[in-house]
Every structure is written in C-alpha cells, then in structure tokens.
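We modelled the chain as a single entity of 155 amino acids. Its sequence is:
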Amino acid sequence: MAISVFSVAISLVTGAFVRTLKTQRILNHLMAVNSNASLVIEQMMREIRTGYNFNVVPNCDELIFTRSRDNRLVSYKWNAQNFSIEIDNGAGFKPLTASNVAVRSLCFTLVGGVADPPRITMTLKVGSTEQQIAENVLNLQTTVSGRILQMDLAP
C-alpha cells in the first residue's frame, strides 16, 4: 500500500516538474522573440525619426523614405514568404529579424503632412518559428514621429 501511494505521488510530482520545464522553455523562447522584435523596432524607429519623404506602399507592408544622414533611399518591408522584416538601404533587401522570429504581419500607417511632423505607426504580429509554440503571437504597435518637417526641405 505504501509503495502504491509513493508511486502515485512520484508520478504527480514528475508530471508537474516536466510541465514546469516545458513552460520555462516556452517562456524563454518567447522572451527571445520579444527581445529581437524590440531591437528591430528600435532600429527602425531610429532611422525613421531622422528620415524624410515618407511613402507607404498601398498594401501597407512597406515603408520607403530618404535617410537624412546620407540622403539614401531606405525601405523596410515585410517578407510574407520568410516571415521576416527586411531592409534595403542600397544593397538589396536583407533580413533584420532573427531566424527564430516569425513576423506574421507588418503594417505601416503614415499620418502628417507638409506642416505637421510625419507620424508612422507600425503594427506587427510576431511569434516563434518553433511549431510547438507557433500559436503564441505578440501584438506590437508603436508610433514614431519624424523630426524633419517637409517644409524644412523646401528650397
């Protein structure tokens, strides 16, 4: 009788321990995904703040602007085939997101005109490339205001 009770108790404790390890692994992976997505957003925001001549393509998944530091055309876009965010700053598109990050969607919204500072809102859904946790998705949104007014560029 004592052995039976002990076996049941060990089974319950082992099951709880295994579930805890699995949950910890999932949380660590989601934290890495969130960290990488935050770094990519921060890099994009840094360049957008000092850019000008913003243009959003009609399906809202690509933002094109001129970088003020070197007057180069820069483009950020969502690659739906690779589930990544990519940048083209003159050398072709290169992925910004890590290989363990799956960007499910990305949309840019541009508000502002010649006299107003342009404001770009980025809305994205990111998750993991691992099948076991692919259904866990983070919804992120941020708005960035450009520092250069279009009227400052007028001759």
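As a brief sanity check on the tokenised model: Helices lie at 2-49. The radius of gyration is 22 Å.
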